[in-house]
Amino acid sequence: MSINRRTFVAASASGVGLLGVGVCSANTNPSEGAIDGVVPRNETFPKLPIGMNLSPITDWEPGFPFRNLFMGAGAWITRNANGSGPHDTSLRGAFQFDADGYPLQVPIIAPGNEQPQYIFTYLPNVLRAGTYVLLYDGEGEVDTMSFSATRVVSRKQGRLKLQMLHNGDQPETILIRKSKRGNHVRNIRVVREEDEGVDLTSSPFIPEFLDFCRPFHCLRFMDWGATNGSIEEEWSSRKRPTFYTQIARSGDPDGIHGPIPTPSQRMYSGGVAFELMIQLCNELKINPWFCVPHRATDDYILQFSKLVKEKLDPSLKVYLEYSNEVWNWSFLQAGWMLRSKLAGQMVEAKGGKAWDDPAKKKGTSHPERIAALFRRVFGIWERVWTGSDKARLVRVCAVQAAWVDAAKRTVKWCSENGGADVVSPAAYVGPDDEIFGRWQTAGPNLKPEQVIADLMVGKEIARENNRAAKIIRYAATFGMKYVAYEGGQHIQPKQQSVQPYSPALAAAQYHPKMYDLYVELLRFQRDAGCELFCHYSSVGKQGTRWGSWGAKASYFEPDASAPKMRALIDCNTAKARAR
Length: 579
Fold this sequence. Notes:
- Helices cover 25% and strands 17% of the residues.
- It is built from 14 helices and 19 strands.
- It folds into two domains: 30-65 and 207-571, Glycosidases (TIM Barrel); 69-195, no CATH class.
- The relative contact order is 0.16.
- The chain starts with 49 loop residues before the first strand and ends in an 8-residue tail after the last helix.
C-alpha cells in the first residue's frame, strides 16, 4: 500500500497540501459572517452530535465487526493439490462458483495444468484467540493450510472444531479439499464456540462492535462500501448479504490504471451488503450515511433508493453522498469523473464548458462536473423519497475544505440545479510544512506533548481566515447547513515516510493531551455551526506511518485507555441508546 486513503495530491491547482480542516468559526451561525475572533473557554465540553466512519472490512485490520469470521474471508486462492508450485497458481478463473461465491466442485483440473487444484482463503487474524467452530452445508472435506495458525481439534461432516491464535502475525486459513458437484460445500460459518447456537441472520454483529456504535448519531459507510475505486455498476451484480465474504475488490474497469478486473475478480465488487448496513442502523436506531458508487447506473441508484426506503426504520434519516472525495486525484473516481461523458453532458446542458478539446477526451470544470454527478444521484432519490419521507433525506454536497474556490463552484452549481441540504468539508487538524520542519529538526528527541502543543497553536485551530469557514458561510447563503463527513487528528510523518520523529507521533495518540486537542477541535466545530461531526474512523492500528485514524485500536480496547474516544463521547450530545 503506497498511498493512504487520506492522501491529497499536494500539487492541486490551489497550491494547498494535506489540510482538509473544516474548523473554526466564532459564530454559531456562519451565515452571519462573524468568523474571526476569540471564543471564551469557560465551558468544559462543547456539545455537538458526533457520527462515526466505520473502518474498512479486511482480514488484517482490527475493524472486523461480524460474529462469523468467514464474512471476512479473502478472495479464493488456488493451489496445486500436491503442494508443489507457487503459493497461488492463479487459476481461480477455471473454477465455477455459485451465486454466493462458493466453488461448485473441488478439486478440478484446470486447462493446461495437470495438477488438481484446491482452493483456500485467509480469515481475519486480529480478533480473540480461542476455540472456534466451523460449520458448513453440503458434501466435502474442509481443512486448514499447513502454514496456518488455525488447527483442527476435531472434525465430523459439516462441523470442525478449531483452535485459532489471532495474534495478527500468523495467518488463519480455511481450505476446501473436496466439494461434491450437486451438493457442494457452502454456507461456511466460523464462529466462537460459545456463539455456535446464535442466529447469525438476526444477530450478525459482535457485542463489542455494537457497544462501540451505540452512542453515535450517524454511521458513515464509505469504507464498508469500498467506495474508493469501486467497480460496482449494475444492481443485479451487487454484493448480497449471503455472499461468502463481505470484503470487496477495487479496480479500474477502464483499464487505465491497471488490468481490467476479470469476471472472477468482479465477483467481489462492492463491500458490505446494504442490507447489513441497514440492519445495523435499525438495531441501534442510528442514522446511516451512504456513499453511492461512482460507476453506478441509474437503475442501480434507483433500486438502492427503493431498498433503503423499504428497509430502513421510518424514524431514521439517511445521509446521501455521491462516492467519496471525487476531487481527490489519488482516487480512481476522480479520474473517472474528469473523463465522464455523462458528467460532461450534464454540465454542457446548463451552458458550461466540460471539455478542453474538440474530441472530448480531456475534461475540465471539475467542480461543476462533481456537482452534476451529485445532482444526478439526488434527483433519482427524490423521485422515491416523497411526501413526509422527503424530510428524512439529507442530500450531502461534499467539498474539499482546502480549496475554497472549487468548493464554492460545486456548491453554486448544485444549488442552482436542484439543491442540496448540507455542505460537507472535512474537519481535520494536522501538521503543516512549518510544523513538519520543527519535527524534522527535533528528530528522535521530539516528545509527544510537543506534537500536540504544535497542533494546539497551529493555524488549523486559529480562528482567523479559515478556509472551511468561508465555504460554510458561502453555502449558508444557499440555505445549506454544515456537517463534517470526516474529521479528527491527521497526525502522520511527512509524505507518510519513516522518520526519526515517528515514535513521538505514535506516542501522541495515547498522550493525555490528545484528549484536550480533540475537545478543542470539537469546540471549533460546534462554534462553526456543525450539526454532525463524523469522526474518521472507528478503530485502526495506531502509530503507523499511514496515520492513526481510529478512535481506538480495536473494538475490544477499553474507552478508558483511548483519549480520542473519550473526548468524542464526552463532547457528544445525548442519544437514547437502543438495547
